[in-house]
Design brief:
Length: 293
């Protein structure tokens, strides 16, 4: 799974190259572990009797994560000027975890509806600030794929919630509320590391912690919350009205919109009441109304 890219950018100091190598290696290990997460989810889908379309999308997502791990390890190798790759992945004894519907739904919300959605938006924002061509190419791919992974999680909820009992819906509402409140709280108390974050890190695809937290807060308020309310109207009473957060000083996020990596100067539609996806090949954001089928 390892790939080495020759020659690090000559204008980067050795310290910054090592920092970038470390950051991209961390991302690579996360992507590598995500392969197992989708393998686990595919077994959960089989257990629940999910459709062939959901199973296909899940296995495609696992293949995407292998691709992402390769891309990130290649960047870590590029900056570190040595070949880097994954070691053995430590697994728990109970690899499958709980097979209870409520537990599977909670995991899909945390890891997919929230996690993959925010991962795509984070990669998109990193793309817009990146200057290194290798990094931009990798982030464009990751942004598109992560959006499709998020779409898989939302489609799973569309399929499972009408078949589930009230206890599962209550767990789903509680999980969304917990995730939303955590991300908003983080943005309200941003990391102090933002001011000390060198521009060179942003130019090489790495967002400061404070910018990352702001992306997450905007993502949950403008993307996750509207989509979740369509599926679970009772969520509104649980979380109340979340106001749009003010822009973080220095952030490249536009007020009320997220933009596609392929043409970051042109804003996409706002996500007032929809989930999102990025279509293959075009990489343009589109609205995806959630329909119960």
């Amino acid at each position: 799974m390892t790939t080495t890219l020759p020659g690090a950018s000559p204008w980067l100091t050795p310290g910054l190259r090592q920092q970038l190598a470390h950051l991209w290696a961390e991302s690579a290990l996360f992507e590598h572990a995500s392969v197992g997460s989708f393998a686990k989810f595919s077994l959960h889908l089989l257990h629940l009797g999910a459709s062939a379309d959901l199973l296909h999308a899940c296995h495609q997502a696992a293949l995407d994560e292998i691709k992402h791990a390769r891309l990130c390890f290649a960047l870590a190798s590029f900056y570190g000027e040595q070949t880097l790759g994954p070691g053995p992945l430590q697994l728990p004894l109970d690899v499958l975890g709980s097979l209870a519907v409520a537990d599977i739904v909670e995991a899909a919300i945390r890891e997919g509806c929230v996690g993959e959605t925010l991962a795509s938006l984070e990669a998109q924002e990193a793309y817009r600030g990146a200057r290194e061509p290798r990094v931009r190419d990798a982030l464009a791919i990751i942004t598109e794929d992560e959006a499709q992974h998020a779409e898989l999680a939302w489609k799973f909820l569309v399929w499972i919630l009408p078949r589930a009992d009230s206890n599962v819906r209550q767990r789903a509402v509680a999980t969304f509320a917990d995730e939303l409140q955590k991300k908003i709280a983080l943005a309200a108390n941003p990391s102090s590391d933002n001011a000390a974050w060198p521009d060179e890190l942003m130019w090489n695809g790495r967002l400061s912690p404070a910018t990352q937290q702001h992306v997450y807060a905007r993502g949950v308020s403008e993307v996750v919350l509207p989509a979740a309310r369509q599926l679970l109207p009772e969520l509104s009473a649980r979380v109340g009205a979340l106001v749009t957060l003010p822009l973080l000083e220095g952030s490249r996020l536009r007020q009320g919109v997220f933009t596609s990596p392929k043409n970051s100067s042109r804003p996409s539609s706002t996500f007032a009441s929809s989930c999102f996806a990025i279509r293959p090949k075009t990489r343009r954001m589109r609205r995806l109304s959630i329909e119960h089928t």
